Amino acid sequence: MELPFAESWKIKMVEPIRKSTREERERWIKEANYNVFQLKAENVYIDCITDSGTGAMSDRQWAALMLGDESYAGATSFFKLKEVITRLTGFEYVIPTHQGRAAENVLFSYLVHEGDIVPGNSHFDTTKGHIEGRHATALDCTIDEAKDTQLEIPFKGNVDPKKLEKALAEHADKIPFIIVTITNNTAGGQPVSMQNLREVRAIADKYKKPVLFDSARFAENAYFIKTREKGYADKTIKEIAREMFDLADGMTMSAKKDGIVNMGGFIATRREDWYEGAKGYCIQYEGYLTYGGMNGRDMNALAVGLDENTEFDNLETRIKQVEYLAKRLDEFGIPYQRPAGGHAIFVDASKVLTHVPKEEFPAQTLTVELYLEAGIRGCEIGYILADRDPVTRENRFGGLDLLRLCVPRRVYTNNHMDVIAVALKNVFDRREQITRGMEIVWEAELLRHFTVKLKPAGK
Ligand SMILES: *Cc1c(COP(=O)(O)O)cnc(C)c1O
């Protein structure tokens, strides 16, 4: 008999979590104005609001913390981190930053100017923010298939080469670089194939443009290439990652994802001009070049985290857990964006709460129902997150309305995944009785989902 699959680690330290009663949760969510960002974390049983900075460090990472060099300039911790990044990526120049958006801010301060166009695959919110904030345009060239939630294809995060080529043919003089997000977070943690990265490189070379990878989940992307793309089954994750980065000029990184640290990020590049151009902004916004907003101890922990999380066993444990949750949802017939991505499951709320009108925010309603059911915190990636149209001030109902359940790295067991799946099933089973959703009481003009105040509609 084939041995069953099990985690590639054992547990050395635990953090107790607390269940609550439905009465308590009803009170807490009301006090939070039906917005899960306003809940106290201690009132959450299983927290799936994000996989960012919520991973569990290994014993080796905790040991590395103690050896942090907190020297202001020239700390050994910086050189350790730089050595690992250069070994994994081939990029010689490294600028640490306090998180991913800070890396964007520093590099884009040098590269992006008013009127520019930055084509790529579904730019992440902060990436888009740092482009649009500079009065430039983030042009989405993701394949159309990514919009169909039920379509199963292996690399649903890909760039559409035709859209990219068109953008370059029309606007080459306005394009400072092409950005590829690996994995494609906004499309549901969907991977980008090596073949696609090669196609992007070829188009970039034709028009003499550099390529930047937004690399928050590059290791998960490498895992998908190994397990799904022809010719990569026998390569190591480190070999695949290196082959990916060989196709880029540089990267920005949120280390809170695949670096498995609670805070951190960096820029890495092979281009001396990018390094020379960006370094002044690092000093201005983040700190001196050998710490850039990070503690020495955190750079040490990140160096170990990057090394560990580019090993197959660690990634297999993680991706299989997300797949496990997806399989449980399949058993119950709960619709989600297919196939399951690397870091989260996106439940298609408009297909679950079919009796809640879109004007009453089905995905937000499902988020609240799941919290009330079992103290599980997901978050809405839907009509509230989409904000209002800047011109008409109408709600934007054109996109998808999803409940995102992120799985933190090395934190929960499959028993927790079972609780999430069954809690969702219980809500799913009574979906016909859920006929009213949420009503907005107060909202901010931009990024309203973090602070919006809601109440049950019609009450
Ligand atoms: C999280 C993330 C960022 C921003 O990183 P922070 O560390 O949260 O600032 C950028 N791009 C992608 C794809 C991300 O997932």
What does this structure look like?
It is a single chain. The protein is an alpha/beta fold. The protein has two domains: 22-51 and 312-456, Aspartate Aminotransferase, domain 1; 59-308, Type I PLP-dependent aspartate aminotransferase-like (Major domain) (Aspartate Aminotransferase, domain 2). 39% of the residues lie in helices and 12% in strands. The chain contains 15 helices and 14 strands. It has helices at 22-31, 59-66, 76-89, 100-111, 125-132, 161-171, 194-206, 218-228, 237-245, 272-285, 296-308, 312-332, 349-352, 362-374, 414-429; strands at 46-47, 93-97, 117-120, 137-140, 178-181, 211-214, 250-254, 265-269, 344-348, 376-377, 379-381, 402-406, 438-442, 453-456. Strands 2-8-7-6-5 form a five-stranded mixed sheet, with helices on both faces. Strand 3 (117-120), helix 5 (125-132) and strand 4 form a beta-alpha-beta unit. It is globular. The N and C termini lie far apart (57 Å).
